[in-house]
Amino acid sequence: GWSLSEVDEADAWHGRPMGDATGTWSLRLGGGVLLQCPRVIVGGNAGICRLAWLPEDDGEVGTLEDGNTAKLLRVEASVNALEPIVSEDDDDMMVGFY
User: For 25-42, how does the pLDDT look when each residue is reduced to its tens digit (9 = 90+)?
Assistant: First the structure.
């Protein structure tokens, strides 16, 4: 595998409780889990959903088996809103999404 010893400020979103934008919903859960996602995703703009967590290892803290293996794991995904398909016969009727 690979690892990073330092993270640039732009990539250190796990340390910003409200994410990068004002429209970000943020939730911190027990066990070092952070979830960030946009409150609303509108057409034409991508929303970014993020998940960060600190997995626990099996070793007892302070022992040789612990191994100081604490790691910050992160996942980031871009989400787009579906665009409506309007009926060719009736401009007021939506027939689906793409």
Answer: 888 888 778 888 888 888
